[in-house]
Design goal:
Blueprint (H helix, E strand, L loop, with lengths): L8 H4 L7 H7 L7 E5 H14 L5 E4 L6 H10 L3 E6 L2 H9 L5 E3 L6 H12 L4 E5 L5 H11 L3 E6 L4 E3 L2 E3 L9 H12 L4 E8 L2 H4 L9 H31 L6 E4 L5 H5 L6 E4 L1 H4 L16 E12 L2 E5 L16 E4 L4 E2 L9 E5 L11 E5 L12 E5 L5 E5 L1 H4 L5
Parallel strand pairs: 1-18, 2-3, 2-11, 3-4, 4-5, 5-6, 6-9, 9-10, 10-11
Antiparallel strand pairs: 1-12, 7-8, 12-13, 12-17, 13-16, 14-17, 15-16, 18-19
Helix pairs in contact: 5-6, 6-7, 8-10
Length: about 400
């Protein structure tokens, strides 16, 4: 398995971007449809994340990966990758059972079953930190901690959206927005038997997850970039005030987590942030094509077989309706990537059972040939398959299970 020895080591000897003939040969004989990851490109993206982190540790956002083996390889690639930011308490228990350490769950849970799974792993020595943003979320944690005889670590989710006149810039996430909110929740945690405040998280979704450029964003993009710059200053001041107030009240914080793939440069400059979070930049999905500060390689995708040729220049693929979550629109559709120049039909898009494409390029496409697509969001790719085909440097292949292949659907 290749290793990353520094921020530039994978990129310095990286092969030319793959073309259609390359991937058609590497996928020859495989059962289609399938999802694939090009390991060389993945590790090059990992090295770029480290280079952008300013020397701060990077916690892997598992929501954007959803494959244990690939998470292990990235964690092993550079010592600055430390810990996992999970999206589900049940997922954290699953990862802990497979030897993963330093797990933080990014979203609150009040589900008794998942909390009990976490307590069971904590009782066996696992390091799992659960997220809270409301005093009501503490009660089931206190009850489970008492039942299992464990202490549960919890972190506060600080809302990082910015309020402009007439505009909520960000996502609807946590009700903890001000110093007083954070202090009240931290004090409630301190009064709760079996709970311990472990950290603070603040995800700047409007910076990390919103592209600067893209189709139809020419004018809107100018406004987005201006709002991002203004939001960065406000967020840094707010997070700093909350961290200082918590420490002055006597609350200890093991970590202050911030950022995402799209905001590493700005978040790492915040002196109060002790670690960053990133994940989507490893796969390089479509929604990360339009950023000013970085350009991830297209390391993951899926391949559909051509099964029909209904008209000259039209090729119909089997499957393909792998639509990303979020606000509905064409930007959530997967897009054909190889052969270069292939396009969806605007009247049909990506269909559940069949997806027609138009192509008039130099490649001769036959029945059974693969068409490679890129998914709009990173980890959701893995919800459609039980395994990923890993394309190895030198032409080799191996298969690794996704969470679905492990037998789990966490959301």
């Amino acid at each position: 398995m290749p290793t990353v020895t520094g921020p530039t080591s994978p990129s310095s000897s990286l092969r030319d971007p793959p073309d259609y003939a390359d991937y058609r040969e590497r996928l020859r004989g495989e059962h289609l449809p399938l999802a694939y990851v090009d390991l060389e490109l993945l590790l090059a993206n990992a090295a770029d994340l480290v280079a952008r982190s300013g020397g701060k540790p990077v916690r892997l956002a598992s929501k954007s990966i959803r494959c244990r083996e690939l998470m292990r390889r990235v964690l092993d690639s550079n010592p600055l990758f430390q810990g996992v930011l999970c999206f589900s308490a049940g997922e954290a228990a699953h990862l802990a059972a497979h030897g993963f350490t330093d797990l933080v769950v990014a979203y609150p849970t009040v589900d008794a079953h998942d909390i009990e799974l976490v307590c069971g792993q904590v009782k066996q020595g696992a390091q799992i930190c659960l997220m809270v943003d409301d005093p009501g979320q503490l009660r089931p944690l206190v009850a489970a901690a008492a039942a299992f005889g464990v202490e549960l670590a919890v972190a506060i989710d600080l809302d990082m959206s910015t309020q402009f006149p007439g505009l909520h810039f960000g996502v609807r996430r946590s009700p903890v927005r001000a110093v007083a909110d954070a202090l009240a929740l931290a004090d409630a945690i301190a009064r709760s038997p079996g709970l311990r405040l472990d950290g603070l998280m603040g995800y700047e979704a409007q910076i990390a997850g919103l592209q600067d450029h893209g189709p139809g964003l020419a004018i809107r993009g100018i406004a987005i970039r201006a709002l991002k710059r203004r939001s960065q200053f406000e967020l840094r001041a707010r997070r700093g005030a909350v961290v200082r107030a918590l420490k002055q009240r006597g609350h200890s914080l093991r970590f202050v987590n911030g950022g995402g793939t799209g905001s590493l440069e700005s978040t790492c400059a915040d002196t109060e942030v002790t670690e960053l979070a990133a994940g989507s930049g490893l796969y390089g999905p479509l929604l990360f094509d339009g950023y000013e500060t970085f350009k991830p390689r297209f390391a993951a995708g899926f391949a559909l077989p051509i099964v029909r040729r209904p008209d000259p220049g039209i090729y119909t693929c089997f499957g393909g309706g792998w639509i990303a979550s979020g606000p509905a629109g064409v930007h959530r559709l997967p897009q054909p990537y190889l052969p270069a120049g292939a396009r969806l039909l605007p009247t049909e898009g990506a269909g559940e059972v069949q997806t027609p494409i138009t192509y008039a390029g130099p490649e001769t496409l036959e029945l059974g040939d693969p068409v490679c697509f890129r998914h709009a969001k990173a980890g959701e790719l893995c919800e459609h398959v039980n395994e990923l085909l890993v394309l190895l440097p030198g032409g080799g292949r191996e298969r690794v299970p996704t969470y679905r292949g492990d037998g789990f659907a966490f959301v």
